[in-house]
Design goal:
Blueprint (H helix, E strand, L loop, with lengths): L1 H7 L2 H5 L11 E6 L7 E7 L6 E7 L11 E6 L1 E6 L3 H13 L10
Antiparallel strand pairs: 1-2, 2-3, 3-4, 4-5
Length: 109
């Protein structure tokens, strides 16, 4: 069964063609089992504030149904989609979102 799945999803093709992701200092990554037909899934979170996190899917076969080319789907409150050639831009966006300082300070009473 696993061989059929690997052939159907061209997994060997993607081993060498998936871009590396370097989120840098302050963020940590946990690869988890993909579901809903995604090729891969990662959770990224702020090291100091675990409530700031993103879920990233790699969809190489339009299984998630929105984009008909290989792309990243990022969920941080809203859903964002990036083609594989926008990987660096996606990483910068995730870093900015997860490492951003609060925009407003609470007033002291």
């Amino acid at each position: 069964m696993s061989g059929k799945c690997e052939r159907a999803l061209d997994t060997n093709k993607w081993v060498g063609n998936t871009p590396y992701l370097n989120f840098g200092e302050g963020l940590e990554v946990c690869p988890i089992y993909p579901f809903c037909g995604a090729q891969a899934r990662l959770l990224v979170r702020n090291v100091k504030d675990h409530s700031k996190r993103a879920s990233i899917y790699l969809d190489t076969h339009a299984v998630l149904g929105c984009v008909y080319q290989p792309y990243w789907e990022v969920m941080i409150g809203n859903t964002y989609r990036y083609s594989l050639d926008q990987t660096d831009f996606m990483v910068k966006f995730i870093r900015n979102e997860l490492l951003a300082k609060p925009k407003f300070k609470k007033k002291k009473k």
